[in-house]
Amino acid sequence: MLQVQLEIGPDPAEVGRARRWARSRLAGSGIGEDEPLAETLVLLISELVTNAVVHTGCPAVLRMLFGAGAADVATVRVEVADASARPPRPRHADGDDTNGRGLELVDGLADRWGWQREGNGKSIWCEVDRGAPVVAGVVRESGVYAPSCAVTNSA
């Protein structure tokens, strides 16, 4: 299993940097940028990093693990760990809302996802099985959270 990680600062501009970094790591793992799997993974990373940066205001760590599944299934696991110990809190976005759908997208695109406590904070993770059908644009009803950061930023 190969694991790579990137430290993310508490700045929304970091989301774009995370996407660029992820694309290069996916290509290095043999997942071509023209594969639907690559675009799905980049979208999942974008949503998880956005949630961590925007809703916690804390630094985060993005990890990608290649080959994380069972021996007969090639799985890519994405994890974003942040310093907020607050568990996910479901939210429902109304039709015209411009945010609040991040984890709905994760739920619709990932084969599995969840969260776990990690140190003083938590990690949100999702897994996509390589070779599994990629369904773009499917959004199932599920919760979206906005955790609060356990660490205060001093300005």
Describe it.
It is a single chain. The chain has 155 residues and is an alpha+beta fold. It has one domain (2-129): 2-Layer Sandwich (Heat Shock Protein 90). The protein is built from 3 helices and 5 strands. It has helices at 14-28, 36-56, 102-109, and strands at residues 2-8, 60-66, 75-82, 112-118, 121-129. Strands 1-2-3-5-4 form a 5-stranded antiparallel β-sheet, with helices on one face. Strand 2 and strand 3 (75-82) form a beta hairpin. Helix 1 runs antiparallel to helix 2 (36-56). The chain is globular. The termini are far apart. Mean pLDDT is 80; it is low at 133-155.
What value does the average pLDDT take? 80
Fraction of helical residues: 25-40%
Largest sheet, order of strands side by side? 1-2-3-5-4
CATH architecture tag: 2-Layer Sandwich
- What is the gyration radius calculated from CA atoms? 15 Å
H/E topology pattern: EHHEEHEE
**Computed structural class:** alpha+beta
Low-confidence stretches: 133-155
Beta-strand fraction estimate: 15-25%
The CATH homology group name: Histidine kinase-like ATPase, C-terminal domain
Q: The CATH topology is what? A: Heat Shock Protein 90
User: What spatial form do the alpha-carbon principal axes imply?
Assistant: globular
Whole-number count of domains? 1
User: How far do the termini sit from each other?
Assistant: 40 Å
Instruction: Tell me how many strands there are.
Output: 5
The total of helices stands at 3
The profile of the biggest β sheet is: 5 strands, antiparallel
The first-level CATH class is given as Alpha Beta
